């Protein structure tokens, strides 16, 4: 099997979940403003037509956007107990195939006192395949 290299800054994702365990390996790149998620698309990530499943895109977008809100809030010096998704939308504008690198790039719009707003782009080999947005309840 050919060894592939990860994009700069990506390491195995630090937060495991029973939902995402079957999709491993998942990678993350954390900075002060976001938690980007990425993966090489494999067969378990695809639908019956052999393209990346929209449900996986939605679940990982929710994950990346929520973790990004948490990072921004933490880096502002605030303590929180967690975040809960209030609403989320995804617009699917392209597709991705086996072997491509899929990356979710979130941007926190505002992390207020009780609600945070965030958006993201989902890329496959650098091309936009989905756009998402969400709001999260900040738990104190």
Q: Could you characterize what this model shows?
A:
This protein has 140 residues and is of the alpha+beta class. The chain has one helix at residues 54-75; strands at 11-12, 27-30, 35-40, 82-92, 101-111, 115-124, 127-139. The chain has a single domain, classed as Hotdog Thioesterase (Thiol Ester Dehydrase, Chain A), CATH 3.10.129. Helices cover 16% and strands 41% of the residues. Strands 1-2-3-5-6-7-4 form a seven-stranded antiparallel beta sheet, with helices on one face. The termini are far apart.
Task: Report strand %.
Answer: 35-45%
Total of domains: 1
Unreliable stretches = none
Name of the CATH homologous superfamily: Hotdog Thioesterase
Question: How large is the radius of gyration?
Answer: 15 Å
* Beta-strand segment tally: 7
Overall CATH architecture: Roll
SSE order and pairing:
Blueprint: E1 11-12, E2 27-30, E3 35-40, H1 54-75, E4 82-92, E5 101-111, E6 115-124, E7 127-139
Antiparallel strand pairs: 1-2, 2-3, 3-5, 4-7, 5-6, 6-7
Short description:
This protein is of the alpha+beta class and 140 residues long. It has one helix at residues 54-75; strands at residues 11-12, 27-30, 35-40, 82-92, 101-111, 115-124, 127-139.
List keywords for this structure.
single chain, 140 residues, alpha+beta, Thiol Ester Dehydrase, Chain A, 7-stranded antiparallel β-sheet, 16% helix
């Amino acid at each position: 099997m050919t060894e592939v290299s990860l994009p700069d800054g990506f390491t195995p994702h630090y937060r495991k979940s029973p939902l995402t365990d079957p999709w491993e390996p998942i990678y993350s790149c954390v900075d002060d403003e976001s938690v980007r998620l990425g993966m090489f698309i494999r067969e378990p990530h695809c639908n019956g037509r052999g393209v990346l499943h929209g449900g996986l895109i939605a679940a990982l977008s929710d994950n990346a956007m929520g973790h990004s809100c948490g990072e921004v809030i933490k880096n502002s010096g605030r303590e929180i107990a967690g975040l809960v998704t209030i609403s989320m939308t995804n617009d699917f504008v392209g597709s991705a195939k086996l072997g491509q690198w899929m990356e979710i790039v979130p941007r926190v719009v505002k992390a207020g006192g009780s609600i945070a707003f965030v958006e993201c782009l989902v890329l496959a080999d650098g091309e936009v395949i989905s756009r998402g947005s969400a709001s999260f309840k900040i738990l104190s």
